Amino acid sequence: xxxxxxxxxxxxxxxxxxxxxxxxxxxxxxxxxxxxxxxxxxxxxxxxxxxxxxxxxxxxxxxxxxxxxxxxxxxxxxxxxxxxxxxxxxxxxxxxxxxxxxxxxxxxxxxxxxxxxxxxxxxxxxxxxxxxxxxxxxxxxxxxxxxxxxxxxxxxxxxxxxxxxxxxxxxxxxxxxxxxxxxxxxxxxxxxxxxxxxxxxxxxxxxxxxxxxxxxxxxxxxxxxxxxxxxxxxxxxxxxxxxxxxxxxxxxxxxxxxxxxxxxxxxxxxxxxxxxxxxxxxxxxxxxxxxxxxxxxxxxxxxxxxxxxxxxxxxxxxxxxxxxxxxxxxxxxxxxxxxxxxxxxxxxxxxxxxxxxxxxxxxxxxxxxxxxxxxxxxxxxxxxxxxxxxxxxxxxxxxxxxxxxxxxxxxxxxxxxxxxxxxxxxxxxxx
Length: 431
Hints:
Strand order of the largest sheet: 3-2-1-4-5-6
CATH topology of the largest domain: Rossmann fold
Largest sheet: 6 strands, parallel
């Protein structure tokens, strides 16, 4: 096994997961941070992290971290940490192409005694069924004889400055008992919250994929309850506040479920379940409900306009927030787009504003030009789709500028109270 004094780490993929990992390990060991995106490497070298997870000081303090977009830079490492994205395609089928590419990249430089640790979310069995054969093919080495593997699923929560990498307990695992112990000890060097050694790689993979599946199903239940309560003309937030007084009531809220974790991970599990001959019922039902919420919100917006005798095709609608979650620049798999797409069917005049999303990324990904808040004046309807902290600070004078006197506010994330709009002519609706 690799001696501690000889450890040299290469982190493959410097996104939300890889960059913080590389920085923390660089406090202990020599680390090569590799990303095939030249622009990303250039920005990081200048002290700028577009994900907002690491500030310039954090990058400057990483004395043992070398950043590179050249594949040859990783050839002298003996521990490889793979942290590339694992999305789904347009049919919600797992897309492992980036993971396969990363495995081939590592396989080319793999040497005797090296350890490859995967952090990317996958279905149970993927590491040894998909990645290991590629490592063997490219390296001409034998798994668990010449090289070894581990799996330690990422638990990064983008935009969360409280639950950071070192403060979240980490699951670890290895391809045999000795490797498992080594991986456990390695992560204990940086994870202050401690680690949980799983009995196998497959168990660690399964544990990761059900973390977000559980949240997805629970949110789906609350979303379905919100649909029911809206028909009953009962405020969902008030119901949840009342029910929440019981000690064991789980504090989930309704809303859009996007991003690269909760909105994606369940499809990895259902894919594997179907592959082995089991048709999952609850997980699929939860996904269907959560994926339908954008359309539902758009329909409520149109209904609100019609009740006010405003022609939807002539209505000016502003959508605040496009990222998949609050206080975060990540637009991957954002479900706000589903609201926009459904509103476009009514030919509404739509402007989209976001304080965190990057203009060029939004234009490239969705063909949407972001509008600054300063240009939004006297609109018919506002949809607060993401609870960015800036939007929670709006006061009556802001609404006077933003909306017409009889304007409509749709508060998807329930960041306001109904009391805030008592005595006004505004129509306020929340999910």
